[in-house]
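Lab meeting notes turned into a lecture example. A postdoc, R.K., suggested we walk through two folding results consecutively so the class can see how the record format repeats. The first protein's sequence and structure tokens come next.
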Amino acid sequence: MIAMESLDGSSPAQGALEYVPVPAFEDNYIWLVSDGRDAVVVDPGDAAPVEAYLAKRGWRLTAILLTHHHQDHVGGVKALLDRRSAEGGVPVYGPASERIEHLTQRLSGGDPVNIAHPALAFSVIDVPGHTAGHIAYFQAADPHGTPHLFCGDTLFASGCGRLFEGTPQQMLASLDALAALPDTTQVHCAHEYTLSNIRFARAVEPDNDALSRWDAAAQALRVSGKPTLPTTLAHEKAVNPFLRADVPAIHTRLEEQFGAPVADRLEAFRMMRGWKDKFR
């Protein structure tokens, strides 16, 4: 269960956590997690919308979590810290193997992240592919028992990240690691790429009825000004071609598209990722 923002901007109920996608730039989401008083921010590429939302809700920032080094995910860190320098600043968590300024806690896969206020416990998952040292944060259960994943640019609704620094093998292994989490996991992606991802997914798997229904639902959400996120892992396994690289119908479609046999799921993933990079 996710406590969403109420119409009057009131705080979540006692014991609940609120997961808020704050829009930034053209299509980024900066995620805030709050207990109604304190808040953690994930991948603040821009400080201004974060500060505005914190002020609107009267929340105090207590920690910053970073998934990878790209500027649209880390660009607001310095300004957030400068604003709080008189109070001693806040801890900044991020990947140990990437060059990111201002990190106070360097993390690798398997490391725990425990934050007192709000009360949050994450485990770190190494997910190289989009960048070499990309990490994700997995919360096994919120106060209502729902798991949550902050995956940066590794997994998107109906898509996955480009391979800027990693290999197809690495990205497929990273997606497999995320897909192994509970199906009920709420996936908090970092971009509103859903409609363009769906267009590609339908080219890859045109006879997927679940994908057709999701296309209509996602378009309705965007027309009404609502985000298509969070998604769930169960949903992604039904509609995301990059989590369906072993589906025979996808292999057949790829063979038609490229005129070459698909040897295995890794080859299917490699072909899909290359196709998506040029898809318009």
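The second example is placed directly after the first for contrast:
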Amino acid sequence: MRVAILAHGKFPGRAKTAVGLLRYGDHEVVAVLDRERAGDRVRDHLDGVQDAPVVAGMADAPDCDALVVGIAPIGGGFEESWRPDVRTALQRGCDVIAGLHYFLAEDEEFARLAEEYGCELRDVRRPPDDLTVAEGTAGAVDARVVCTVGTDCSVGKMTASFELRDAARERGLDAAVVPTGQTGIMLAGWGIAVDRVVSDFAAGAVERMVREEGDRDLLVVEGQGALAHPAYSAVTLAILHGAQPDALALCHEAGREAVHGYESFSVPPVEAYARLYEDVAAPVSECAVEAGILNTSGLAGEDAAREAVDAYAESLGVSATDPVRFDADVVLDGLLDSE
């Protein structure tokens, strides 16, 4: 499928869905929509991903099958400035795929245009209707279950999940990601956006996914939020307890000292954060932080990144890496052999 990705004003730094699709997606990306960077190319801003032109709007995009909303503001709302692009996409016969809390299929104009032009509106954050409370049974699956957890939002949990999956597959293991957020769902083609689930059923949603895929060698459960986040801790806890993981990989961004968007709240020291995750998980599933994943994208040069990774590993007392800049395989042994 050929897709255009909407990322106005956020590409690449605050467009993690767009970047995830460019790095790990199976679709051909024909354009990225960003008014502020129109005329650039993806390769001007990102290495090691698909290249495509950056254009001002959907009217400037090449022929494609779908428009994907590649950003999600805090709270997952729809920005009215995107409406002309979605409207144009539908009028061109393109499906529109979004991971917002605002469901495009419930927008009167978009629903009418989709019907008129024979398009589909796919709201990947819409949860199933038959979810239940957790039974505490995810720990019984045969798979080794690893959960990526973080010190904040947008530090690399989704990226770490897919990099760990790919490293395991390179070893010949049957490995899969359990997608819990909109980007992971778009990449894997299945999953449940846990932050959209009624709180009583959130752990049950994760448990259900783990059990459905539990006959594999390795399941990497995609984390969301952070346990000490002032707004999003609830979804983090639901994933942690619902998955009943065997091991944790702690994700952090080099140099991040305050919670993004909530700068009056400091990020606790990483070694304290690791203990917090272990202590909160323990009553449901005894597990430990067995790997560190450090996002060094904000650091210039490999030497600075390597130094930061080494310091992170020393702080946690486990192996660490930046799986995009370096290699995920170096932390996989600890995650697989920590029993």
